[in-house]
Every structure is written in C-alpha cells, then in structure tokens.
Design goal:
Blueprint: H1 9-12, H2 16-30, H3 33-40, E1 57-60, E2 75-78, H4 80-86, H5 91-103
Antiparallel strand pairs: 1-2
C-alpha cells in the first residue's frame, strides 16, 4: 500500500499563487508602524534623495520574480524613479548599473 505524499507549503504556492500571496503580505506590511518608521526620513534606499514619505514606494531588494519574499529584511523604501528602473534586478545588478552610470563605463 503506497503512502500518500504529504504536501508541503511550497506545493501550495506556485506561480501566480506565490505572487498573489507575497503581494498581499506586502500590502499588510505597508500598513504597519514599522513601514511608516522606515519611510519617515523620506530617504530613497537607492539614490539617497529626500522625498515626502508618502512619495516613497515599497521595493523588494530581491524581487519576487527572482525568488524574493515580502519580509521586513527584503523591503526598502524607494522613490518611484529608482523602483521603476530597478524592476527585476538583483541588488548586485543594480549596483553595477549605478556604477556604470556614475563611471560612464560600458562594462557588462
């Protein structure tokens, strides 16, 4: 008699279900005092420019599309411009992009 394989939590969250669940977690975290404190300074994590706290967006350091999660350690306040430019880049890819902009090199 074969035993049924026990499903893990990972079995339930695949594809679009994963993204939906992680986006919902992010929406909930956006309503917390923790997030309000992170945005209070108005400083974009990436460019360092100052904005009104309400103008900052929530960005995943490691994007959901790259396996990131909506947990405090992976969420930072970012201006809309940086968030839109970063898109699905990993942190080191973003750093390389910024270095190319600042240094004017065309390294890949």
């Amino acid at each position: 008699m074969a035993m049924a394989r026990r499903k893990s939590r990972r079995d339930f969250f695949t594809g679009e279900d994963f993204f939906k669940a992680e986006r919902e977690k992010a929406r909930k975290l956006r309503q917390t005092k923790w997030w309000r404190r992170k945005c209070a300074s108005g400083i974009c994590y990436y460019c360092g420019r100052k904005f009104k706290p309400s103008e900052l967006t929530m960005d995943h350091l490691i994007p959901l599309a790259q396996g990131g999660k909506s947990v405090r350690e992976n969420l930072v306040p970012a201006c809309k411009e940086c968030n839109n430019k970063k898109k699905y880049l990993m942190p080191w890819e973003w750093d390389e992009y910024l270095a190319r902009l600042k240094g004017g090199t065309n390294e890949s």
